[in-house]
Design a protein that fits this description.
It is a single chain. This protein is of the alpha/beta class. It has 2 domains: about 5-130, Rossmann fold, CATH 3.40.50.2300; about 145-205, Winged helix-like DNA-binding domain superfamily/Winged helix DNA-binding domain (Arc Repressor Mutant, subunit A, Orthogonal Bundle). Helix content is about 60%, strand content about 10%. It is built from 9 helices and 5 strands. A 5-stranded parallel sheet has the order 2-1-3-4-5, with helices on both faces. Helix 7 crosses helix 8. The longest helix has about 30 residues, at about 110-140. The protein is elongated and about 75 Å long.
Length: about 210
């Protein structure tokens, strides 16, 4: 997964502005998709590829802030670059608090927008890689029995076999057996690797 896989989504109800943005982004080598409204974008976006959203703030029916809120509610982390014809500081602050990468005032210089897009795409790729890593970790942990999972969680917390045996009301020999089976299933060789795997898996549920 790299920047060549990314798609830059441009949402603006102004046809001339939208065409201008698409021309700039295409000229810079980005893959693009454009939409005349926030609703059109939300209906078509599937979230499978990295990229970013260049989003106009003021649009009829559904403004950019509403589009952002909908994405937040859906749990979609697509990085957003807002474009606004008005320097509205409270709106910019609200957008950034909800995770926007940038809030640029129209008209903005080409290099400023392209720099923002580059940062947003790199962040999107990082997020996608983290999600893939997290889901892979969850799949590996799903191989464990309920008791084996309890044991590895205790190991990740730094507990020794004796402490785990006391916590789970089982013998140390049984703890050792569960520990060995779990490490074989997870293909790990240390408690540090177990802790890292659990940390990655927890990231998938965020």
């Amino acid at each position: 997964m790299n920047e060549h896989d990314a798609i830059i989504h441009v949402v603006d109800d102004d046809d001339a502005m939208r065409r201008s943005l698409i021309y700039l982004l295409d000229s810079a080598g980005w893959r693009t998709q454009d939409y005349a409204s926030g609703r059109a974008f939300l209906e078509r976006y599937d979230g499978h590829l990295p990229g970013c959203l260049v989003l106009d703030v003021m649009m009829p029916l559904m403004g950019g802030m509403e589009v952002q809120q909908t994405l937040v509610e859906r749990g979609v982390g697509l990085p957003i670059i807002f474009l606004s014809a008005y320097g509205d500081l409270p709106m910019a602050v609200a957008a950034m608090k909800r995770g926007a990468v940038d809030f640029l005032e129209k008209p903005c210089k080409d290099h400023v927008l392209l720099d923002a897009v580059g940062r947003a795409v790199r962040e999107s790729i990082r997020q996608c890689q983290e999600r893939q890593k997290a889901l892979a970790a969850q799949q590996r942990l799903a191989l464990l029995t309920a008791r084996e999972l309890e044991v590895v969680e205790c190991l990740a917390a730094g507990d020794c076999n004796k402490t785990i045996a006391r916590k789970l009301a089982i013998s140390e020999k049984t703890v050792q057996a569960h520990r060995q089976h779990a490490m074989e299933k997870l293909a790990v060789h240390s408690t540090a690797e177990i802790a890292r795997l659990l940390m990655w898996a927890q990231g998938a549920s965020k």
